[in-house]
Design a protein that fits this description.
The chain has 257 residues and is α/β, with parallel strands linked by helices. It has helices at residues 60-74, 86-97, 116-145, 148-153, 160-169, 173-184, 190-193, 213-223, 236-239, 241-255; strands at 6-9, 14-18, 39-43, 79-84, 102-108, 200-205, 226-230. It is built from 10 helices and 7 strands. The chain has a 7-stranded mixed sheet, sandwiched between helices. α1 (60-74) packs across α2 (86-97), α3 packs across α5 (160-169) and α3 crosses α6. The chain is globular. The termini are far apart.
Length: 257
């Protein structure tokens, strides 16, 4: 069993936060203060942060199996899953594998399928990583990850020091490649989603160029879920943690009423 860095904070109904592709559990730091009253598990997936990074690729199914193992070790039989981007894909995959373990889904800035347009956005990250390492990958990815308003408010992110700060939080380059390969292996999840009978909320960023509204709309329709907009780009919990937390809290209070 792969070793996953994790922490549980708070008491109450159980909630699991699933990171975006290259994030660490600290990416939720600005959100958690607004979600008191819940027991929250956050963790680094394999290849992320301080978790182990064995040979890959790290597909959504592999990540979902890892999380099921972690939940078993913690004695968590059920929880609401809150997933961002690739974390949303992992949450969906786990729900399809073990729906009895999931009490609800919050799926933010994510997609249930890959199409040619999405591959055209993400595959260059892999080529940039191979050609110029993490810094070049970041330069290629930044306009897809952050919304225009956030980037315009934080021009320091494009400076060398800003890029180095972001790079310091990224996984190792071998792990980044395995994570990307796993994401690019995503199969169309929509056919199976219609059979899920779970409360679900789908969030999208109004400035999300990576996964624009069409992907969220397709996901919400497949799940019969509510669809809501956030005033952000793709990295919603970092760009506007309060708006993100308000939507999540309202959903959790409804599920656990």
């Amino acid at each position: 069993m792969v070793r996953l860095r994790h922490e549980v904070v708070g008491e109450g109904p159980r909630v699991v936060f699933l990171n975006g592709l290259f994030q660490r559990l600290e990416s939720w730091d600005l959100v958690l203060p607004h979600l008191q009253g819940f027991a929250i598990l956050r963790y680094d997936m394999r290849g992320q942060g301080e978790s182990e990074a064995p040979e890959g690729p790290y597909t959504p199914r592999v990540h979902a199996q890892d999380l099921l193992g972690l939940l078993d070790r913690l004695g968590w039989k059920e929880a609401v899953l809150v997933g961002l981007s690739n974390g949303g894909i992992v949450a969906l995959t786990l729900a399809l594998m073990a729906p009895e373990r999931v009490q609800g889904l919050v799926l933010a800035c994510t997609t249930p399928y890959l199409d040619t347009a999405l591959r055209a956005k993400v595959e260059p990250w892999l080529h940039a990583l191979r050609a110029g390492g993490t810094l070049l990958r970041l330069r290629v990815a930044l306009p897809w990850v952050f919304g225009a308003c956030f980037l315009n408010a934080h021009p320091e992110l494009l400076a060398e020091e800003g890029l180095k700060a972001l790079a310091a939080q990224a996984p190792g380059e071998a792990a980044q490649e395995r994570l990307l390969q796993g994401f690019l292996a995503l199969e169309d999840l929509r056919p199976g989603l219609k059979a899920l009978c779970l409360p679900a909320l789908v969030l999208f960023g109004e400035e999300d160029l990576l996964f624009p509204k069409a992907y969220a709309k397709a996901l919400a329709e497949s799940l019969g879920a509510r669809l809501a907009a956030l005033p952000t780009g793709h990295a919603a919990p970092l760009e506007d943690p309060l708006a993100f937390a308000r939507e999540v809290r309202a959903f959790l209070e409804e599920v656990y009423a």
